Automatic annotation (TrEMBL):
It comes from Camelina sativa. Keywords: Membrane, Transmembrane, Transmembrane helix. It is a multi-pass membrane protein. Its main location: membrane. This is ALBINO3-like protein 2, chloroplastic isoform X4. Pfam families: TPR_6 (PF13174). It is found in: Membrane. The chain crosses the membrane at residues 75-100.
Length: 342
């Protein structure tokens, strides 16, 4: 811009007659009845560019000191539109032609990049944004459409989402009862990262809910194998191991494979009781499943031991414990009578 301004001021060859319409001489300052055209365009395009640049969910949702500074900065840039109008009268028409052209192209570029179709073609969708809980979503084979908190429709390409973002979408979809779409998203996440343990565990859970037990156990067994290989130590890995073992045990029990189910459920019983209330509920659910499996296998003594731990946590299960203990007493009486008989 500085080069063009210098050429205009120095009367570069051709600038005196290289214009068009009312701006034939590019070395002249704007004047006459059409003089305000370029200053108005410059000020107007500057204002429009500011509105487009700051029309972003990330900027709108920014709070605190950063959000306050951004709002004041936007206001400052908007106020600049007024002095720019007057500055336009002091700039040669050659520079004004360049300035207006540059600003208009910038507006077109920003609007184009915000358009879902253009963004999808350029692989830009899904970067820096993803729908969150509460958004209305519509998922097709390649994109997810949702309405954001500002009631604006957004479109993301599934191919550009990370495995973590795909898993987050899958959880939201599964919570609404759409198991098919949830599994579709999880498969795509695992295609991107086959060793994604959280994805393997949630895939097993989703398939378990669809009663696809054999396939569910495959994913859960793979997740358990990876967790045990890594010797889980942090709370997240321990929780994943607990959930994977619980759901694998439940899947095997439902298939009638009691020994395999008990093996997985006993792994949960050997873990330390978690402190987090939600994790604690999962822990005792696994113990309840284990006691049921042991009882069905005729190991009522072991089942009673597990049930006592469960009852200490939740007395509502005391009738189950009493039933189990009554059967133990009945078996003991029968054994004693047989001894006396012999």
């Amino acid at each position: 811009m500085a080069s063009i301004r210098k050429m205009s001021l120095d009367g570069h060859p051709g600038f005196d007659s290289g214009g068009a319409l009312w701006f034939q001489n590019l070395c002249d300052l704007p004047g006459g009845s059409f003089g305000p055209v370029f200053p108005i365009l410059i000020a107007g395009f500057h204002y429009i560019n500011i509105q487009i640049s700051f029309d972003s969910p990330t900027i709108r949702q920014t709070t605190g000191l950063t959000g306050l500074l951004m709002r004041y900065y936007k206001l400052y840039l908007e106020i600049l539109s007024v002095p720019l109008f007057f500055v336009g009268y002091a700039i040669p028409q050659g520079s004004l032609v360049y300035w207006v052209t540059n600003s208009s192209v910038n507006i077109f570029q920003q609007l184009s990049l915000k358009h879902p179709t253009v963004g999808a073609k350029l692989g830009l969708l899904g970067q820096g944004a993803s729908p969150s809980v509460g958004h209305s979503m519509e998922i097709s084979e390649s994109v997810v459409k949702y309405v954001d908190s500002d009631s604006q429709e957004q479109t993301l390409s599934l191919q550009t989402l990370t495995p973590e973002e795909l898993l987050s979408l899958s959880v939201q979809v599964l919570s609404k009862g759409d198991k098919e779409t949830s599994i579709q998203l999880l498969r795509l996440a695992l295609e991107k990262d086959p060793g994604y343990v959280r994805g393997l565990v949630l895939m097993g859970q989703a398939l378990l809910q669809k009663t696809q037990l054999a396939e569910a156990t495959q994913y859960l067994e793979l997740a358990i194998s990876k967790l045990l290989d890594g010797a889980p130590s942090d709370a997240e890995d321990v929780e994943l191991l607990m959930l994977a073992s619980q759901w694998a045990g439940a899947a095997y029990v439902q298939q009638g494979k009691m020994k395999s189910g008990i093996t997985h459920l006993e792994r949960v019983a050997n873990l330390k009781e978690p402190g987090d209330p939600k994790s604690k509920e999962h822990y005792f659910e696994a113990l309840l499943l284990l006691s049921s499996a042991l009882y069905k296998e005729g190991q009522s003594d072991e089942a009673a031991k597990i049930l006592r731990v469960v009852v200490d946590h939740n007395p509502a299960y005391k009738p189950l414990l009493e039933q189990c203990e009554d059967e133990n007493e009945l078996v003991s009486d029968l054994v004693s009578r047989r001894k006396d008989h012999y």
